[in-house]
Specification:
This protein is of the alpha+beta class and about 190 residues long. It has a domain of about 120 residues: Alpha-Beta Plaits, CATH 3.30.70.3270. The longest helix is centred in the N-terminal third of the chain and has 15 residues. Bound molecules: iron/sulfur cluster (2 copies). The site of one iron/sulfur cluster has 14 residues, from α3.
Length: about 190
């Protein structure tokens, strides 16, 4: 049969020598490797006490953005859902009513917006597709949980805190986003 790659190696079927039969050199060689690792830098990180430093390209949990007045940016155009290769985004659009101008920036808004984090591959295409700066991926992990249902993030889970009513929480949730936008533009 023709091999798929040239990486296969023929098996050595020669009879074992006396040294090979007593296994001592092989055991010593194995122990040398083990002891050699004792003095190397340990790759294990004591999470959550210590946290890894992520690269600038790291993409974590999504956030639905608001403008500086606290109005929701999302206009429920559906571009993020179309761009999503994992079909993880579901939404329902609604018309903004008179008197709701302080809640929603555009005339249409997402009455329901959900992301299934078990489907999401954190590719960031939803962020790229959005024309309204309404969704972006933060540097926060999706927390672990025991049930599948908990990984369906609703609009309430995803909406960034109000920048006027909760400025500290808003800044924290914003994370390094301004930095990332600058990097994208440059
Ligand atoms: S990050 Fe990628 S997979 Fe996840 S919701 Fe956005 S487009 Fe879909
Ligand atoms: S997040 Fe952006 S792309 Fe997705 S529906 Fe809202 S405005 Fe459209």
């Amino acid at each position: 049969m023709t091999p798929f790659t040239n990486r296969s190696k023929p098996v050595d079927r020669r009879p074992m020598s006396l040294m090979e039969k007593i296994y001592v050199p092989a055991v010593v060689e194995g122990l040398a490797i083990t002891f050699g690792h004792i003095f190397r830098r340990k790759p294990t990180i004591q999470f959550p006490e210590k946290q890894r430093v992520f690269g600038t390209a790291f993409r974590g949990l999504h956030v639905l953005n608001r403008d500086e007045e606290g109005r929701e940016n999302c206009t429920a155009c559906g571009l993020c859902a179309v761009a999503c290769p994992a079909e993880a985004i579901t939404m329902e659009a609604a018309e903004r009513q008179p008197g709701e101008e302080n809640l929603y920036r555009e005339e249409k808004y997402a009455a329901r917006y959900e992301i299934n984090m078990l489907r999401c591959i954190f590719c960031g295409l939803c962020e790229e597709a959005c024309p309204k700066d309404a969704i972006y991926l933060t540097e926060t992990f999706t927390p672990s949980d025991y049930t599948r249902k908990q990984f369906i993030y609703t609009k309430e889970d995803l909406l960034i805190p109000h920048p006027v009513k909760e400025p500290e929480a808003y800044e924290k949730a914003l994370g390094n986003k301004p930095k990332r936008i600058k990097q994208k533009d440059s």
